[in-house]
Design goal:
GO molecular function, one term: oxidoreductase activity
Number of domains: 1
Number of strands: 9
Mean pLDDT: 94
Number of helices: 8
Low-confidence stretches: none
CATH superfamily: NAD(P)-binding Rossmann-like Domain
Strand content: 15-25%
Order of helices and strands: EHEHEHEHEHEEEHEHH
Family: Belongs to the short-chain dehydrogenases/reductases (SDR) family.
CATH class: Alpha Beta
Pfam families: adh_short
CATH architecture: 3-Layer(aba) Sandwich
Keywords: NADP, Oxidoreductase
Shape: globular
Structural class: alpha/beta
InterPro entries: NAD(P)-bd_dom_sf (IPR036291), SDR_fam (IPR002347)
Length: 242
């Protein structure tokens, strides 16, 4: 049975995606930091019609780098990586180390290993990773966070390039959400630019279903917003407070 693995299933975005895929009858393997919450999400997925649901507690901040659990899943339909935390732009060295580990290093490593496993399968599979529009241009408001997301986007492009050269049937998808309303962003002022996690999850589920490659903005109107921001001349951009 082909299984979709969701790393970070206990996050608001991960949980929203689990609900959608469960309703489609998918077999799921879910990981998250919160064991109790993960169990509730898994039970809800079963009630919604998931063909099979397995779970594993995984905290990337204390993870030893082993991906044996991915090999034990069996045939993979897709691996979805959702982990991410907001950065403290004025954080100390230890704080920045922790943030880079979660936002880039661990995710990039999981992406590389997942690509390798998917490439070994005769029919390949999909690697879907959640990035952010913050990586599209360096802005004073979230420069360090955006730098991590830009690095992740570059690395995923490299993985897609490698898969193409190796003729591996691996579809690499980068999801770029804008501002998502969740516990992680609850302290931020409300804005019409915020989207519910369900809206982003719908883009993710559609991309998985259509078996496409490339970059997907979520919601799609963020592509136009970020295109405009990227095109603002530097001399003008530096006078803004974006």
């Amino acid at each position: 049975m082909n299984t979709t693995v969701i790393i970070g299933a206990s996050s608001a975005l991960g949980e929203a995606l689990v609900r959608l895929l469960a309703e489609q009858g998918e077999a799921l393997f879910l990981t998250g930091r919160d064991e109790a919450k993960l169990a509730k999400i898994a039970e809800d997925a079963r009630l919604r019609g998931a063909a099979r649901v397995r779970t594993r507690v995984l905290d990337l901040q204390s993870w030893d780098g082993s991906v044996d659990f991915l090999r034990e899943v069996g045939q993979l339909a897709a691996v979805v990586l959702t982990p991410g935390i907001l950065s403290d732009e004025e954080g100390d060295f230890a704080t920045w180390q922790r943030e880079v580990l979660v936002n880039f290093t661990a995710v990039a490593y999981l992406a590389r290993e997942s690509c390798s496993l998917l490439g070994e399968q005769r029919k390949g599979g999909c690697l879907q990773v959640v990035g952010s529009v913050a990586g599209d241009r360096g802005r004073q408001s979230n420069g360090f966070y955006g730098a991590q997301k830009a690095a992740l986007a570059t690395y995923l492009e490299a993985l897609a390039h490698r898969a193409a050269l190796e003729h591996a049937e691996v579809r690499v998808q980068l999801i770029k959400p804008g501002m998502v309303r969740s516990a992680m962003t609850a302290h931020l002022p409300d804005s019409p630019l915020f989207s519910p996690p369900e809206a982003v999850a719908a883009v993710m589920a559609k991309a998985l279903r259509k078996r496409k490659r490339g970059v997907f903005y979520a919601p799609s109107w963020w592509r136009a917003v970020m295109t405009i921001i990227r095109l603002v001349p530097g001399v003008i951009f530096k006078k803004t407070k974006l």
